[in-house]
Amino acid sequence: MLTDVVIANKSYTKLNLSEDCPVDNIALKVVRQDCPDFLLPMKTMEIDGEMEIRYELQEGIRLSYMSRQMSKKDFVTMIVNMLMPFKICNDWFLDYHNFLMEENYILVGKNGQSIKYVYIPSPEYANTDDKIKDFFTTMILKTDISDDPGYLVNALRIIKNQDSNLITLLEYFQKQSSVSEEPKKAPAAPQTPPAPSRPAPQSVGAPVPGPQAQPHVPPVSPVPNPFKAIMPEKKPEPPKPAAPVPAPEHNTAAFGKNDEQGRLMNNLFGDSDEPEKDKGAKGQGLFGWRKGKTKEEKEEKKPEKKGLFGDKGKSGNKARGPVQPPVRPMPQQQPAPQAQPQQPPQAPQYPYQQYQPISQQMDDSTTIVEYGEEVSDNSVLKLRLEDCSGCGCPEFVEIDLSKGFATVGRMDKNGMPQADFNFDAAVSFVSRRHFRVETSGDHWQLIDLESGNGTYVNQNKLVPNMPCPLNHNDVIMINCNRRRLVYRVC
Description:
The protein is α+β, with helices and mostly antiparallel strands. It has helices at 25-33, 72-88, 129-142, 153-160, 166-181, 260-269, 295-301, 358-361; strands at 3-7, 10-17, 42-47, 50-56, 61-62, 69-70, 107-108, 115-116, 144-145, 380-388, 396-400, 405-410, 421-423, 435-440, 443-448, 456-457, 460-461, 468-470, 475-480, 483-489. The chain is built from 8 helices and 20 strands. The strands form 5 sheets. Strands 11-10-20-19-16-17 form a 6-stranded antiparallel sheet, with no helix packed on it. Helix 2 (72-88) packs across helix 5 (166-181).
């Protein structure tokens, strides 16, 4: 239906209306002369009896090129600006059914602050309410809210309700926008107690008021208690004596007062309960067999001095002969362990990862390529750095195109990524979402996303929102005064 063209380095989309196609002249005049802010400007001309309408694609990025992952605040702002033209278009004598509901021809301004539609002034291209609701339903389903994934559930319930309409959905998002933008209330200041009031100054010569006389109040006599004379006073009871604490029981025999038999045994054989004061002293008592040590026991502890023939040195006793060593019991011989069959060593088992032999990891299959034939894999775009003026950009860049497209830009000041592949925030002359790369058969195509400094392919500046073919050995350049960034397609 629409055809994209480039005229004088500007991107347009044109529509041809036949002679039999009815045209709303009032809407056509309003859009050509006044052109509301929510519509793309148009130009009309007649060629061979047909009316050709051209819409200039400017001041925005196609909705189909926008990132589907955004924050809750950005999404609410964008959806409110998309729904507002459906409410105010009646003030311009326009019918919202004639808005072109295609993502490729809806331009979104920076951060979703402005939305522009293509208006077709013909009832043949009018949409139904169900088609418009299906468009917004599909858009909500494709969007991914990064900070609140379940936020869009209530919006889907409203738009799927048969009794609801776009105005109901607009009011819901406007309420959400006002809640998110409501400023936080400042904490209340602490209330200070009021200062004591001072008496007003008196004029000179006025009589100074003296102290006011207080009225005389007679003393109140205490009322006697009528029950005091009838009921006798209770005298305080004397404190009860504390119960005597029984003394601990002692064994009188321990003190030797009544145990005569124990005292006699202690005098005869000695007291075994008392500790020894002198280990070398003889035992107490008459016989002294409980305490002290014999002469033989003392001599056993002294080291024996043996001569050549086993006799003692200083002592004149006879030699006792050679001292035989004590007989030690022979250790019991344990039966020899039976030899067990050796088992081959087992490979260590890893609980978190299993390794495969190299023969299974490597693929022995080979691919035969004829002479002159190239194996192309357009799922990865490889770039090599050619020129970089003090940017510190990587020498080799690989852009993943497994999902069919990828955006290239830079990080913001907070270090948050804004595109699929991001340069450092210091490369300030690169926009946050600078250009987009898409797969097209065995090759690629590059689209400039209304960047600030533009994108050049082989020294040719690209027209925003218009795809440009990209092949091997092509040069991509981003230039800003004396700073430039040049990459070559490998």
